[in-house]
Amino acid sequence: MERVKLEFPAEAIIHRHPLTVRVTDMNYGRHLGHDALVSLLHEARIQAFAALDLVEWDMHGYPSLVADLAVQYQSEARWPDALVIETAVPEPNGKALTVYQRIMHRDGERVVATARVNQLLIDQVAGQPVAVPEQVLKVLAQARGA
Predict the structure, then answer these.
(1) What's this model's pTM, rounded to 2 decimal places?
(2) Integer Cα distance of 48 and 50 in angstroms
(3) What is the phi/psi pair of residue 53, to 5°?
């Protein structure tokens, strides 16, 4: 079986978001469901950008869209586990913002999942991706401590 294998770039962390698994996040296997996990990742990504005064629907004039998502599941989480989602955004290469996220138990001993999202910023008139605006690059570089 081919598996997704992601390397989380810890040097590019821009935000840490604590949360608790809710009972509504559980699936019939009595652990965190994949659909809920994607929603938690989205919430943490929005919070990470908001902490930098960036919003996905208006990144200095351009809305973003998710081009793809990869998730590597590594362990289970259950209600009411305390978790933290770390968000890392390395220096963009091309037009995409590549956002990595790592969901961990808050004690830091077990990784639940690692994910990668490629986001494109779109010129709504032309319907085409644009280069990441310089101001967005600057804010992300400052958050990374670069």
Answers:
(1) 0.95
(2) 5
(3) 60, 35
CATH number for the domain whose boundaries are 10-141: 3.10.129.10
Six-digit token string for 12: 């590019």
* Whole-Å CA distances, 142 to 138, 139, 146: 6, 5, 6
Instruction: Express each pLDDT in 13-57 by its tens digit.
Output: 999 999 999 999 999 999 999 999 999 999 999 999 999 999 999
Residues in the chain: 146
Which two structure tokens, joined as six digits, stand for 102? Answer: 């790592």
Collapsing DSSP to helix, strand or coil, 114 comes out as strand
Using only C-alpha atoms, what is the Rg of the chain?
Answer: 16
Query: Where would I find the H helices in the chain?
Result: 34-51, 134-144
Phi-psi region of 17 (alpha: psi -120 to 50; beta: other; left: phi over 0): beta
Give me the residue spans of the domains in the chain.
Answer: 10-141
CB 108 within 8 A of CB 50: no
